[in-house]
């Protein structure tokens, strides 16, 4: 077996040549990587240098630390992923990242979630991706790149034909950049998943949703779409559903934390009666109430046989709607995951879901509630299961990519790296 270069020693040498002290956390991660020579040689490795690590002492990565790290990684062929989330990288650090992306030919996954990269850094990274032909998954989540930064990524997507997954959630995108991204994605063939959560919108006209819907009518490659916190109401839901009657590729639609009401869900229910591609529908934290739950239940019980996961937590649903959802699962055998916590449970609703779990129709790991009994009465308790519980962070006690807490990784066609 060929012995690969010692990353830790190279890092110490790079720090010396740059006349800067080593970061002990970076040194520790590289030492651990050096121990897995066989894995490096056969599969490649992801360096996890996340600044929110609670298992080992952490000194968050700075721009200067990154310069030394990039100097080490530029010539490696076995580092395929780099996780730098929750550090203190700025636009100066983005210069080193951009240079690395231009010169590296093996990196598939880059996570820069919640650093301090702004518009200038976004421009540098986006321009580097004009020529990069290997990066498949980029997370910019939580970096306040703003509307102008979003425009740089829209321009990048016109040229880059390799990137498959792009996360621009919580990046303060504006109306202009959302429309530009939707326009670019209309003919795009490589992007399979995009996260556009929580933009800063200053209009109630839902222009961005209209353009996203127009994109979905034509795009045939997008599998996963996140539109959380888009202030979406009936007009936007109607435009999306019109598009999805024609779209044959989208499998995961995230509409959580919008302003969707029971009347809007009737439109979604009609879509589910005919749509044959959606597998995951996230409606958490809307206000669909009992009538909305009944509309969904009717579609699922009678017509739809493709949806595998439904999330309706925190939707002001009470006994009538919850029992209707449980009844739909008795006839629909495809729906395997359902998340309902945060609604209004009475004993009848608790009994209905308790019976689903007891009978084996609903597996305990496929829902976010667990029945228990007190004085002969059945109640439901919350358990930490969901579609993307660990989107922002992974607790130190959890398994890497915990399938129970992150069911979308199991079901979704576009998985995490």
Question: What key attributes describe this structure?
Answer:
LRR_dom_sf; globular; repeat; 15 helices; alpha/beta; 417 residues; Leucine-rich repeat, LRR (right-handed beta-alpha superhelix)
The main sheet comes to: 11 strands, parallel
**Sequence stretches where pLDDT stays below 50 over 5 or more residues:** none
- CATH class call: Alpha Beta
Number of strands: 13
Name given to the CATH homologous superfamily = Ribonuclease Inhibitor
Detailed description of the structure:
The protein is α/β, with parallel strands linked by helices. It has a single domain (13-382), classed as Ribonuclease Inhibitor (Leucine-rich repeat, LRR (right-handed beta-alpha superhelix), Alpha-Beta Horseshoe). The protein is 40% helix and 12% strand. The chain is built from 15 helices and 13 strands. α10 (234-244) links the parallel β7 and β8 (252-254). The longest helix has 14 residues, at 146-159. The mean pLDDT is 94.
């Amino acid at each position: 077996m060929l012995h690969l270069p010692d990353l830790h020693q190279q890092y110490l040498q790079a720090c010396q040549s740059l006349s800067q002290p080593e970061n002990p956390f970076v040194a520790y991660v590289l030492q651990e990587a050096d121990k897995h020579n066989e894995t490096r040689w056969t599969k490649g490795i992801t360096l996890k240098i996340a600044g929110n690590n609670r298992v080992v002492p952490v000194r968050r990565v700075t721009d200067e630390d990154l310069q030394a790290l990039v100097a080490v990684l530029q010539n490696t062929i076995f580092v395929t992923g780099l996780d730098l989330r929750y550090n203190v990288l700025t636009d100066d650090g983005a210069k080193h990242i951009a240079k690395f992306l231009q010169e590296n030919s093996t990196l598939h996954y880059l996570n820069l979630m919640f650093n301090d990269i702004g518009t200038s850094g976004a421009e540098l990274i986006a321009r580097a991706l004009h020529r990069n032909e290997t990066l498949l998954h980029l997370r910019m989540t939580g970096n306040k790149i703003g509307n102008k930064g979003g425009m740089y990524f829209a321009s990048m997507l016109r040229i880059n034909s390799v990137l498959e997954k792009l996360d621009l959630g919580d990046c303060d995108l504006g109306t202009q950049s959302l429309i530009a991204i939707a326009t670019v994605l209309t003919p795009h063939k490589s992007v399979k998943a995009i996260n556009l959560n929580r933009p800063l919108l200053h209009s109630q006209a839902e222009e961005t949703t209209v353009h996203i819907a127009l994109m979905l009518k034509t795009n045939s490659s997008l599998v996963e779409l996140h539109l959380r916190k888009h202030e979406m109401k009936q007009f936007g839901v109607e435009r999306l559903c019109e598009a999805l009657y024609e779209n044959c590729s989208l499998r995961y639609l995230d509409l959580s934390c919008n302003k969707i009401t029971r009347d809007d869900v009737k439109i979604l229910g009609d879509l589910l009666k005919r749509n044959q591609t959606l597998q995951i529908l996230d409606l958490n934290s809307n206000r669909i109430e009992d009538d909305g739950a009944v509309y969904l239940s009717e579609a699922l019980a009678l017509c739809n046989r493709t949806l595998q996961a439904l999330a309706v937590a925190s939707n002001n649903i009470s006994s009538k709607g919850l029992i209707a959802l449980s009844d739909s699962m008795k006839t629909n055998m495809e729906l395997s995951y359902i998340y309902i916590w945060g609604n209004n449970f009475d004993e009848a609703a608790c009994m209905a879901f308790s019976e689903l779990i007891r009978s084996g129709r609903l597996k305990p790991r496929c829902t976010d509630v667990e029945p228990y009994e007190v004085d002969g009465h059945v109640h439901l308790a919350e358990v930490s299961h969901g579609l993307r519980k660990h989107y922002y962070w992974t607790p130190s006690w959890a398994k890497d990519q915990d399938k129970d807490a992150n069911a979308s990784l199991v079901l979704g066609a576009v998985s995490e790296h």
